[in-house]
Design brief:
The protein is mostly helical. Helix content is about 60%, strand content about 10%. Helix 2 crosses helix 3.
Length: about 100
């Protein structure tokens, strides 16, 4: 679980990947071409299709992105379930638990 959360935090640390997630939150089900176009036109990001594809692979690897194929097209959808793991990490923390002693 800790490794999964570490990977999730690393994926979210990149501003380009956060921008991709923002775009998918705004319009889910985009193809690579659509994502590249939106990043280029709306955000003025000059990243190659291959670079965007690598970012998408990272996001899919940590579960923030789901893909589906329809014919020759691959659609990308945002999956917010892993973000709930982050919230649960601290939401379930008991603040009245034992305090750590300081040296």
């Amino acid at each position: 679980m800790a490794d999964d959360l570490d990977d999730l935090f690393r994926a979210l640390a990149d501003p380009t990947r956060r921008t991709i997630l923002d775009e998918l939150a705004e319009k889910s089900g985009q193809t690579l071409f659509e994502i590249c176009s939106r990043l280029s036109m709306k955000h003025r990001l000059g990243i190659s299709r291959q670079g965007i594809s690598q970012h998408l692979a990272v996001l899919e690897g940590v579960g923030l992105l789901e893909t589906r194929r329809e014919g020759r097209y691959k659609f990308h959808d945002l999956n917010t379930a892993p973000l709930r793991q982050i919230a649960e990490r601290w939401r379930t923390h008991d603040p009245s638990g034992p305090e750590e002693s300081t040296p």
